[in-house]
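Quick log. Single chain, no ligands specified.
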Amino acid sequence: MKAIIVMFDTLNRHMLPPYGCDWVRAANFQRLSEKSVTFDTCYITSAPCMPARRDLHTGRPNFLHRSWGPLEPFDDSMPEMLGQQGVYTHLVSDHYHYWETGGATYHTKYTTWEMVRGQEGDPWIGQVKDPEIPDVVVDRSEPMWRQDWVNRQVIQEESQFPQTQVFDRGLAFIQANHQEDNWFLQIETFDPHEPFYAPQEYRDLYPEEYEGAHFDWPPYRPVQETPDEIDHVRREYAALLSLCDNSLGRVLDTMDELDLWNDTMLIVCTDHGFLLGEHDWWAKVVPPFFEEVAHTPLFIWDPRTKDAGTRRQSLVQTIDVAPTVLGFFGIAPSADMTGKDLQQTIAQDVPVREAGLFGIFGSHVTVTDGRYVYMRAPSSPDGQPLNNYTLMPTHMRYPFSVEELRDATLAPPFPFTKGCPLLKIPARGESNSYETGTRLYDLRNDPRQENRLQDSAVEKRMTQQLIRLLRENHAPAEQFERLGLVAQQD
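-> predicted structure:
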């Protein structure tokens, strides 16, 4: 048996033809939907990038206990578990966060791995002289912005784009190993994450009369731009998405050519979506996690059932990927995984949960049952009390500061830390709520989440689900306190 995960970053469900989009050129995603099971109710668990990947490895949520960071010493890693049972695992990625301080324990869980340089502000090309930067809608001064323009000087032709090279190498692995058995391949590209930089031929797919300044990298803040600028950046995103579609098509072609559909599982997924002006916001992280960010695409081909061209309504999440891949190879999930093996969901739409939690460390904790979305906000604007629980005290690009670590205490183990006590480090300034305010939405009657629902009975029921899931995931006691749930949890 063999398995392939194709993972995109920031892949918007509502921009894909299988989910109703009628203007984005993505024929291979439609083709994929016809060759696999399409999930209509898939949600993230933790966000953004590396928290989502910890979910994918461990099958349990990251965001309740810590912010962005590496795998912990006590974590059960799906690729590592596969390797321990004789399954060869390989990672090909241009997701440069894997090679930063706050992600450096993920790629080593694979038997072998390859890195492609050049995405976003990857500190790659060394150039002292400032690059030429055109007039831009959003003027940015951070080093990552400058570095991106340095990198773009050597990323001009489609063959030079990191995404193209990732899929080149992933397909080379398949060609070299397709006659072998017992392997797992993860082809992962940072695209269509911002900046939305794509070859000109893909931008030409979306003609426009825009004459404004350069704009392909939205800021993380409320929208201040004009309707023309919003429309332009959506087209830039669409162009990059069409490049992703082309890369996906190359995988499907290879599976056809080598007749891999008989024995190879294929999972196509993402970590989260992105706000392109919806709700008057750009990006993610700061506003509540609306549907555009939290409700994600998911496609799975399982050669055991050979079910294709069908859809599933059961609520599934990122944490289900690890148990599903392990189950495919006949390996039991660890006792600490709260995600579920989706084999029967793929085959017969058998539900695996009543409700699911999702969110980002320090902000709303959200629960959904697939119809209602209940965003429970912190009781105070600073999101306190809040602590990081970790044995790997690193942020995205640097370790925790000496000042942060001076306030650390030793906390007793959680049930999933295998007897290991943890550093308990106060998390100051990590609340991401732009406003305090609990929100309830009815997706059946308000799929765009334009009107908050006022229904005390529904809110009570969703609060009970929230409390139950916090308990099941061994949330720290202060999570109940910060969410105003102390009295209700008794």
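The longest helix spans residues 227-257.
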